[in-house]
Amino acid sequence: MDDDQNLCALLSSYLVSFNFSVNSVNNIFNALAHTREDCPDLVISDIMMQGFNSYDLIKFLKLNILYLDIPVILLTVKGMTNDRTIGYNLGCHAYLTKPFDPKELIAIINNIFNQLYLL
């Protein structure tokens, strides 16, 4: 989820090329609505969104037992230690700062899924 439509399109295409199924939304409300319709295996989100931010999204997901285990990767320009600490304390699984190498994102996704399936 990102409000930058170009980044969403590029990232979606890249993830699809690695055989991931991708649904893109551009705000927290659409993300929550989509989650209720079709619970995702993973959420990748920019922190800075209009209205609620991705920290809020993590809090909302943690309120429902059906969604509290959805892994969240934060992808953002907010790279200060305090920003990362907030994300990790809320329960994000990974934190990537923009600009980023998409190969690193794939490695993070694969690592998250490998750890989930080992449990």
Q: Helicity range of the residues?
A: 40-55%
Helix/strand order = HHEHEHEH
Please state the average pLDDT score.
89
The biggest beta sheet, please?
3 strands, parallel
CATH fold call = Rossmann fold
Strand percent estimate: 5-15%
Class by SSE composition:
mainly alpha
CATH architecture: 3-Layer(aba) Sandwich
Report the end-to-end length measured between terminal Cα atoms: 27 Å
Strand order of the largest sheet: 1-2-3
Please, how many helices? 5
Number of strands: 3
CATH class: Alpha Beta
**Poorly predicted regions:** none
CATH superfamily: Response regulator
What does this entry look like structurally?
The chain has one domain: Rossmann fold, CATH 3.40.50.2300. The chain is mainly alpha-helical and 119 residues long. Helices cover 50% and strands 10% of the residues. The chain has a three-stranded parallel β-sheet, with helices on both faces. The model has no long low-confidence stretch (mean pLDDT 89). It has helices at 5-17, 28-37, 54-62, 81-90, 102-118, and strands at residues 43-45, 72-76, 94-97.
Short overview:
This protein is mainly alpha-helical and 119 residues long. It is built from five helices and three strands; from the N terminus they run H-H-E-H-E-H-E-H.
Question: What would the keywords be for this entry?
Answer:
mainly alpha; Rossmann fold
List the helices and strands and how they pair.
Layout lengths: L4 H13 L10 H10 L5 E3 L8 H9 L9 E5 L4 H10 L3 E4 L4 H17 L1
